[in-house]
Every structure is written in C-alpha cells, then in structure tokens.
Amino acid sequence: MSKNVYVFGSNLGSQLGNADLDDSYKPVLISAFRNQNVQSVVAGSIHTIALVNNKIYTWGCNDEFALGREGDEDKILEVVLKTRTKSEVVGISAGASHSACLLENGNVYAWGTFRDTSGIIGFDYKTKYQKTPKLIHRNVKKIFSTDNVITMLLKTGGVVSYGADLWRDRFKIERRTRCFKNKPK
Fold first, then answer.
1. Would you kindly state where each structural domain of the chain is located, as residue ranges?
2. Which residue in 43, 78, 47, 80 sits closest to 63, CA to CA?
3. Which of 2, 3, 64, 137 would you label with 179, given CA atoms 20 to 30 Å apart?
4. pLDDT tens digits, 75-114
5. Domain 6-182's class?
6. Which H, E and C letters describe the chain, residue by residue?
C-alpha cells in the first residue's frame, strides 16, 4: 500500500485534486492523502476515485454525477455508501461518466451514466443519471470499467456487463442499458 498519491496531466475538470493547479507535467502530491493507507486510485475521463482506508473519495467533473455525491467538485470528498451490511470496499473502477465499487461481500454499487454514439443513454431504463451509489449486482469477484461499460467477473466464473455497446459486436446490449450474462462452457 502506498502512503502518498502523486498526480499529473490535464486538470481540465479539477481531476488532479487541486482546483488551483493548472495542467501539470510533473507529479504533484495530493496532500489530503499524505501518509494515508491508499489502496487504489483510478481515473475516469475527467474525474478521479481513490480508495483510502477502506473509504471512497472522489473529485473532478461531476456534470453527469460520476462523483456519486453532491458538493464541491474541486474538493476531495468521501462518497457515502448506504448498505444494509457492513462490508469493506475492495475495488473501484471508473469510466467516462460513471464510477463503481466492489464490496468484500460481492455487491457492486455504481453511479453516473452511460453514453453511446448518440449521446447519453442513461444509467438504466428509469434513470438518466444515477446521482448516488446504487446496488447493481451481487456475487461479484472483480470489476472493470471502460468508457461506457462496467464489466464484472462473477464468483461463479460468469461475466456480466452493463453499459453501452458502441460497436454492437461484443455484448449484444441494445440501445438502452442492458445486462448480458455469459457463462463459460
């Protein structure tokens, strides 16, 4: 585990964790995490998520609720998970406009939205933007995100994906967000 987090690159949406910082071509320390138990850091398009001391922190652009919380985009703030059980966060992922986390009990929570080539397709059939973490699947072993897809490796060995199928060749997801389950033979 790292004790410090350094960032560099574009700071277009304050995704470097410091609103006063211009784009940085050299690593800059995020002072909020100095000497903390940093377990993981992932970058979305213009937002960032960190897992620190088993808590999720987000910062950067929140136009489509990829931060999973209300509040100042420029500040590094905790995302509050409303769960029925006490289970630690063991994984995080981020895409263009969504974020997700995996709990040790196998539950996956996600928030934000998905896009396809026509624009925003929504988080699910009823919700254009999911503003706070929502339980989307159970019995998951690992999570991964690309720009507009969350893929989950199930404890049973199967794979589940949520999001937009931009190329219509892998997941057979229709225009709206769908779930596709595929179990290995």
1. 6-182
2. 47
3. 64
4. 889 998 988 778 999 999 999 999 999 999 999 999 999 9
5. mainly beta
6. CECCCEEEECCCCCCCCCCCCCCEEEEEECHHHCCCCEEEEEECCCEEEEEECCEEEEEECCCCCCCCCCCCCCCCEEECCCCCCCCCEEEEEECCCEEEEEECCCCEEEEECCEECCEECCCCCCCCCEEEEEEEECCEEEEEEECCEEEEEECCCCEEEEECCCCCCCCCCCCCCEEEEECCC
